Each structure stands twice: as structure tokens, then as C-alpha cells.
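User: what does the whole thing look like in 3D?
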Amino acid sequence: MPKVTVDGQEIEVPAGATVLQACELAGKEVPRFCYHERLSIAGNCRMCLVEVKPGPPKPQASCALPAADGQEIRTDSEMVKKAREGVMEFLLINHPLDCPICDQGGECDLQDQSVAYGRGGSRYDENKRAVTEKYMGPLIKTAMTRCIHCTRCVRFSEEVAGVDEIGALYRGENMQITTYLERAAEHELSANVIDLCPVGALTSRPYAYEARPWELKKTLSIDVSDAVGANIRVDSRGREVLRVLPRINDDVNEEWISDKARFQVDGLTRRRLDKVWIRKDGKLARASWDEAFRAIAAVNAGASVAAVAGDLVDCETMFAAKKLLGALGSTLIESRQTGMSYPVDNLAAVNFNSTLAGIEEADAILIVGSHIRWEAPLVNVRLRKAAKRGAKIFLVGAEWETTFAAEFLGEDLTVLNNLPDYVNDTMKGAERPAVILGGAALANGALAPALALAEGWNLVREGWNGFNVLHMAAARMGALMLGFAQAGGIADLIAAKPKLLLALGADEVNFATFDGALKVYIGHHGDKGAAAADIVLPGSAYTEKPGTYVNTEGRVQYADKAVFAPGDAREDWTILRALADALGVTVGFDSFPQLRAAMVAEVPALGVEGLANYGALPAAVAGAKAEGRIAAYPIKDFYLTNPIARSSATMQECSSELLHGEDVLEAAE
Amino acid sequence: MGILGKIFTWWDGATIGTSLFSSMNGEHVGTDAQGNKYYRARKKKTVEGRERRWVIYDGANDASRVPAEWHGWLHGAFDDLPESNLPPAKIWEADYSPNATGTTGAYRPQGALERGGQRARATGDYESWAPDA
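Assistant: Here's the predicted 3D structure for the full assembly of 802 residues, as C-alpha cells:
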């Protein structure tokens, strides 16, 4: 633990810390452009110069200098001030003065730091450098003349994303950042370079010229595009969500979000359900809320009613539906739309027990039936970190392009019954072994054999639980905690032949199997569910209602309401509450706080932010054998997995250009 | 306008009293493109030491119908009559038009129903779903 003196203040810093970190620990601000906590140290912007004694009598780059015992660091001396002014002057030599038309304006590191640390005026009369335009795909807008060569984007794609997409050409002043052969950046985390870019060189293409940061209302929310539950900030103006940015949460998403989470929000303004529709003579016709409620009451379903929850709904909506069905005398509730029927009597068996941050520590990982890059890009980042630390990773299932060293053991699930010796030995010998089951594995009934393997390998040990299930739906864990699961899956609902079916944003259900039922769709987007429904009631999307979400590791998180739902649409729970009146039953809540209180009273874990405790893993069933093949994964198109993304023009463009290789002609600018 | 209108209304041109007053006390000095007639008092320096000037409208008594060049003369900004005082109109100058508020020619902003209700996209717009669309 070296002791250093920062501006006369003596502090102790952790071993291996840099001088910059020491200054931050001492509460001193050190300006920087290239240094970033989650990336390797480059030391090429020179903005973090400080005076360090003992050492050469010149300012030193603090980000790349290890803190050593007895160092005397000054961040407030005349030398440091002059050094910063000089560096800033050099950076601004080739930086265009186009702040008024730059999208980074107002949230630009260069702008802020030149005000705080730069000279008052310019002494530069020569010509400025100009850089030819680069193309980086449908998400990243480039203005490379603004680039200050910090190389954060290069380091991000190399180190975090794990793909060599972005690099630099030439050197010195002539250096240019570009994608390889100017192809689009294809990685599913590629847009994080927009946040990383300290200047306006890389900005968001869909958000270009939309708004200034100071006009936006910032709302803290939770992402629903996958089951990771990334912490996001929803930026809105008036009634429209303009963009989504990640929030820092080291336990969940660190500082990143997937491109889908970031850019699907333009789908919130397209194909919206904003009025009530009732099917008359085979065609949906506009109607009023009263008519719809009367039509639902007219079915006289009694207890013959079922509810299916979709992938994006919040816990409150599901709980309100459960209460409504309970008041009617029915328990037919299900959330696994596609027909999965894994046992859920012990939720520890279907939880990501290692935790998202914990999986980084694993040293041997067996992944069964999960295309992790698409099912949870942020977990892929963690796995890459684990692999870089030396974890051995094996995969069972169809091959996909991994971003870390891994070995595919084949598509055949029977390999689990008889794993090769070296795999067995690695898993047995590992200190922190882990198994990850994906959606394809659950659908093929691999849960029981995986539990048997877990017991055999002793995955649960002191301070470590290596048994993980990776879900794909943001609503899944919350739904399971609320009991939205039947023993036989959705087949139980079909067998019960309900007279009334409530689809809560459920679009993946095969509605043809509910032939005799009056199908009521409560949701926000006109997708498969609304098209198949008999009555459509407009609800709210995730940005338009407060809600509780539980991610795949069982982490309870709360989201706030950012904007109002369009047209006649209402918050989902109010629709269910009104429906209760129409059906003549009482559900016991009249306001959102009452609803949440009732939910927490029934499932106390939902009332506490953070990891829910599901107890110990169930005992493995003896003789469980795996069978089947995983030739394909449930996600066929990463960019179009939910109704919001399917409505989004940006996501459709990504899908056609990045996944299907069609050359999309760029709109004339 | 018939004689009855002249007797009972006041909103088009001069009433009988004003016409009489104008012909007895006023000197007709000019007529603008719209037919409005401009007068000045024969007796000099009557109102607060300044010459009294007035207009008899040819049609509606709407002050905005006085074109810019006569407006200056009428308000005492200059004494020479516009025809002799001001340079001739340029070919690119548009004809003077009075205030159109309250008429069908009134300005309607983009997106107004009278202009077809079509406007550029704005924040908060959304596209709603309709079956089979």
C-alpha cells in the first residue's frame, strides 16, 4: 500500500494504482480523454499531466504512471496548469470549431475541459487537418475530422467486444480511425463507442440532430430487450422517448448496453396500439372501452379464464392479472409462451446463481444450448473476461461465432450423458466451475441432466454457486416468482379450454390453439398478438409505466415512468382493475402503491431491490438422461426479438444490413 | 352602394356628413391605387399647429388599406405628395395588400386544418396500428 502525497494531502492508495487513481482518491479532478476505467491504458492524449517528484523535472502522464511510495504529486502547480493549457491547445489545433452543429454539444468532454483547463483564445492561424468520412454502419454516425485520437473506440472493440472491427490507419497527425475496409460495425455492443467517444467524432446516427442534452428529461429505468435487466436512463422530450443510455451498475451491465436496448426505442412511436378494437364479423373495428368491457363480460366465462404474460411485462401487471383471475376463481396463468414446461417448484434451479458479475470469476464453464452473444450480449462480455483470465469454456449446441476461446462439443445433447474425459476433468478440477443453460437447453429438457452434472461436479460449494440458467425474456424471473407457470406449461392452459384468454403483451403464443376462447390482447404494439386477438385493449410499453423487473440472476429492479402512453392507451394495471369492475369482482387495490404493496405482501422478495434468495438447488433426479439436438437457437434475428424492436426502423435496418448483408442504400444527406 | 346605405351605414367610405365636410373644407390632393381619396384642410395649421390630413376610403373603412407611401404623408412624416416625393416603384416591389386577418386570404400556419392539416413531423408524433395495415 504505497503512501503518496497529493497536493500536500497524504493518502494511502491500493498497490498497483496509478497516479491518476491516487489523485482521484484524494478528491482531485484530473482531466483526461484517453483514460477509461474499463479499458486498458493508452496514455496518448497527454491531458492528465501532473507534476511528480521524484522523477524527471517535467510533467508526467498520470494515467500511465504507477503510484509509488513517497511520491509527491501536484495537480495545482503552475507547471501543471501550463501543461494542460498546452495539451489542450494542441488538441484544438485540428479540432473543428463546429460545436453549434455537433451532436456532442453539451455533453462533450473536449468542450467542458477546454472551458475548464484550456487557454482563453487561440493562437493558431494555419490550416486545420480534415479527414475523409468513414462509414460505420446504421448506428454510428461519424465525423472523423473531430477525432482527437484517444483510441477508446479501438480499445473497446478489441478488449470488451472482442472483435477487431475498429482500428487506426497511418500515424501521428495523419492517424485515422476506421472500421476494417469501412464495413459497418457489426458487433451487438458496437454503439457503446458512442458513449465512449469523448468528442463528437462518433455519435448516434438515429438520434442525429434530434435534441440537445439539456432539453431532455432523464428517467431511470430498466431495459427489457433481454433478461439481463441492464440499467438504463431514458431521455425523453415531451411525449417521446428520444434515446436510451446506459447507467453504471457494476453488478449488472457495468457501463454498457446492447445496441438493441439502445436503439429499439424508435419502435415506441410506430405501430402503437392507441385505441380499443373489437372483432366484428371477422374484422377488427374501433370501439370504446365500455363496449369492450361489456363484450368481455358477455362471455360469462366465470372461472374459465386464462392469462398468458408476454416477455416484456412488468411484475405489477402480472400480479394484477393474477389477482383478477384469482378473484374469478382461476389459476390458469403462464408466462412461457413458446410451450416450455421445465419444473419451477424450486426457482434456484432456473436462476443465474453465479450472478452476472460472479461468472467472471469462473474458471471452467460449460454452456448448453445458448447463443449467448444474441441471448445476452452483456453476459458474453463477462464470459470474455472469464476467458481472458484463463477460464476453459465448452459449448454444446449449434456453432456460433464466439468472442473468446471456446470449444464446441457438438449439437447433440446426448454428449452430456457421456462427456469427454478432458471436459469432465477440467470441470471437476476447477475451483469455480459453472454450467450455463440457455433457452434451447430448457426447451429440450436438459435441465434435469444438467442438475445431475451439477451434483456430480459439486458446482455448489462454499462461496460459489455455479449452476446458471440464462433466460431471454425480461419478464421471466418475475413471472416465475409470481407463479406464472403451470406444471405442463402452456399446454395446461390449452387443455383447460378457457372461454376467456387474457394475453398480456404475449405475441409468441400460437393463438390458433385457443380456438374457443375470446382472446383479449392487452399490450402496446400491433404485432402477432393484436392481429390474432378478438379484443385489443391498448396498454403501455416499458417506458410508459413504473414497474418491477427481475433479471435472469434474480435481481429485483425498479423502473420509473418516462412518458405517457399514446392516445387512449392506459397503464396495464388500470385496464385490469377496470376489467375487474366490469366482471363484478374485487381485486383489492385502487392505486399503484396499493397494487405494489399487495404484490410485496404476497411475494416479499419483490419489495427489496437486489438479489432474491431462492434457497438451495434441488436434488438431482437419478438417471436423468439428456436427449435431442440443438441445431438452432430460439433467437433467429438478434435485432428483431420483441414487438418494440420489430417496429423499430433502426432495428429493421440493422437486421437487413448487418445480419442479412443486403446493401442498404444510405438516404441522401 | 345606394343612397339608403349611405344614410344608414358608416362602414363603407364616408358618411353623408363626412362627405359634405370634405367637399366644403378639404382639398382633394390625390388618389391611391385602391381608389382611396386623400384630403387636406384648406385652412392651414389647424391641429396642434400641423396641417390636417384625412382619407376617404373607397370601400371598407379599414386603416390597413392605406398603402405605405400614403401612410407616411397621412401621418405627417413628409409634406410632399407621394407621387412627387418618393422614387418610382421598382419592378420587384409587390403591390400593397391590406391586412387579410378575418378574410379567406388570412395566413394559416403549416398544419392548420384550413391548410389541409399537413405538417412536418414533431416530437411526440407516433404512428398508430390498424388491422391489416
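In plain terms: Helices of chain B lie at 3-8, 16-25, 68-74, 82-85. Strands of chain B lie at 26-31, 37-41, 53-56.
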